[in-house]
Amino acid sequence: MNIITLDKSKRYLGLLAVVAFLATGCSSMRIVSMPPDMQVPTDFASNHTVHGDNTVSKSRVFADPFLVQLVDIAVKQNQDVQIAMQRIEAARSFFKMRKGAMLPSVEAAASASAQRYGDYTMEGVGNFDTNLSGNISEDQKIALPIVPYYYLGLRSSWEIDLWGKLRNQKHAAYMRLLGAEQGRNLVVTSLVAEVASRYYDLVALDEELGILQKNMSLQDSAVRVAEVQKEAGRANELGVQQFRAQLLRTRSLLLQTEQDIVRTENELNYLLGRFPQPVPRTKSFMDQPLPATMVAGLPQDIMNRRPDVVQAELELKATQADVAAAKAAFLPSLTLAPFFGYNAFNSALLFNPGSLAYGVIGGLAAPLLNRSATKGNLTRSEAEKMEAYYRYNRTVINAFQEVQTTLTNMQNLRRIYDLNQQETQVLSDAIGTSNELFKVGYANYLDVITAQRNALEAEINQVETKKSLYISLITLYRSSGGGW
């Protein structure tokens, strides 16, 4: 009766040990709750989210064939795009590594060793006693005192994913692979917008250069008129000097504009991944119509298209999988290590059928003491998860405000451009009026200089406003999801 009771006690103690063994993995897990999901507004304040034929699209935004050609070159040759492609390859390789960790590893193994056991060890005494046994053949006798050991075969190791640790690590790697692909899309979208912006900077500078050249011609004529007026006694040397000073200032502006053109061309060539060279472009920027009024679409659709938002969401999912894997690290892990091959202490007998050996070793292990590294990994994973959550929210808010700001900016730029056109026309007429009045003595040289300067500034402002309108269109394309 006592023996039966003792056996039951041993079973209960064994069961209790297993429960305690498993409980050690759960004791240090803490639950970190996620804040409530952020609600994205269903509409933009500008109320330009209806669907229609005027939604933002590549064909409508990039209507200039010169610009399309430049963007094609940039996407193929830009170094940042190539770097992003390598990030994808690195992420894909890491995913393959995590995927392979779920499968058993098999390796070929060959080993040879020799050892002399002490006379007063279990191995030494056992080998000596074995050779004296009458139950073994001559081939089975052990060579003494140096005992060789030979092995040739296969060995395997396989961690059984009991709690999903490996599965979650693989899922996190896959999310980051998708995130790397979205990162490449983000680089391309930003590159397309940057190339387009530099392109419109360049064609606008061409227009401004033409305006300065035209004004230099007008100012040169004004100098000659002032000299004639001086000879006729209707003007003095001060007036002639003022006209000459204005002409010199315009020449300096022209040289600065030429330098700006060179700088912008070089910046554009850098984005295209090539050395400085002439950039083909349109020569009639101001003759092109204003960009058509376009709508952005629904905010949620934009969030689903924007690579930075999708990338942030994928990183959040990856960190959630990291946390799950870190929690599973507290639980016992089961490892199997089978082997199969030839094993002998005589090389001549290694491939003898009797030398065939196989077996399997199983192990169950869990952290019990000094688990600071495991706890630290879990705490770090949870902190990174919360960081990714707030980063995702920040990205969504930034995406929404970018679209909202750009829509409002385009509306106001259209109004500003209309006013610029009217101002330019009025000031152009004022130049003719001031010249005529100056010739007959009803206006002084300051009136003429002021009219010319104001007209020059108005024309350049009109070019800048139109350029800003096109760049805002590019910004709307990028902030709505972009791509190429």
Question: How would you characterize the overall build of this protein?
Answer:
By secondary structure, the protein is an alpha+beta fold. It has three domains: 1-30; 37-102 and 163-331 and 371-479, Outer membrane efflux proteins (OEP) (Up-down Bundle); 107-160 and 332-365, Single Sheet (Outer membrane efflux proteins (OEP)). Helix content is 64%, strand content 10%. It has eleven helices and four strands. It has helices at 2-26, 58-61, 65-77, 79-100, 122-131, 165-231, 237-271, 299-305, 307-328, 372-439, 445-479; strands spanning 105-116, 146-160, 333-344, 356-365. The protein has a four-stranded antiparallel sheet with strand order 1-2-3-4, with no helix packed on it. Helix 4 packs antiparallel against helix 6 (165-231), helix 6 packs antiparallel against helix 7 (237-271) and helix 6 runs antiparallel to helix 9. The longest helix has 68 residues, at 372-439.
CATH topology assignment of the largest domain: Outer membrane efflux proteins (OEP)
Spatial sequence of strands, sheet with the most strands: 1-2-3-4
Count every helix, treating DSSP H or I runs of 4 or more residues as helices. 11
Task: Give the H and E element order.
Answer: HHHHEHEHHHHEEHH
State the domain count. Answer: 3
Number of strands: 4
Q: Radius of gyration, rounded?
A: 40 Å
- CATH architecture descriptor text of the largest domain: Up-down Bundle
| N/C terminus separation | 83 Å
Structural class: alpha+beta
CATH class of the largest domain: Mainly Alpha
Largest sheet: number of strands, sense, barrel closure: 4 strands, antiparallel
Strand content range? 5-15%
Can you tell me the overall shape?
elongated
Share of residues in helices: 55-70%
Q: Provide the low-confidence segments as ranges.
A: 1-6
CATH homologous superfamily heading of the largest domain: Outer membrane efflux proteins (OEP)
Q: Report mean pLDDT, rounded to a whole number.
A: 90
